[in-house]
Amino acid sequence: MQLIRCTKKLQKEMGLKKNDISTQEPDGANLGSWHANLIYIDGKKCILFVNDKTLFNFIATNVKRAEIKELSNLFKTTLKFMLETNKIPENVKSEFMQEYESIQYANTNNKSVMGSMNDYAYHYKDYIQTRGGLKIADTLFIIHSLNNMPMGALKYNNSYEELAKLIETMNA
Fold first, then answer.
1. How many helices (H) and strands (E) does the chain have?
2. 2 three-class SS
3. 101/98 Cα distance (integer angstroms)
4. Which of 125, 124, 106, 94 shows the shortest CA–CA distance to 52?
């Protein structure tokens, strides 16, 4: 079992109640838990996902309420796509995806990840707006750019470097 740690704003949009929120700690894992937030770009709902360990991140844009209510499906579909576009080896991708067969939702719990997520949210909004908005901007390019951005929380490494380190330890 793994966790997606949702902000209160996202929990409200999902219609989660107090008893829907897990207090269990996730299983030991490779990627482990994620933080997720609902942000608005061009007046459209978008979900930002940030991995707790690596700060690897991606955004799902123009998301409908029905998709938000099925957040685990949206997450798994988008994560799989991101792993494929980043040419993650098939065996590693399969191992990562197995971690998320069972997903529960929890409250956010890491101020450092939340701070990084807020930085990413700012940059996503700015990059998308300055590149013509959601209809025109190349979201995949923007995701790639932000995963290449050095982050203070990672001692000025970027999330791709941290993801590569994680994959290396898995293959050791």
1. 7, 5
2. strand
3. 5
4. 106
Q: Which residue has the tokens 């930085």?
A: 119
Angle between helices 71-85 and 90-99 (to 10 degrees): 170
Angle between helices 111-130 and 139-147 (to 10 degrees): 140
**pTM, 2 dp:** 0.96
CA distance 148 to 134: 21
Q: Which residue has the tokens 């065996």?
A: 91
Domains parsed from the chain with CATH numbers: 2-165 (3.30.420)
Radius of gyration of the chain (CA): 15
At 63-105, the pLDDT tens digits run 999 999 999 999 999 999 999 999 999 999 999 999 999 999 9
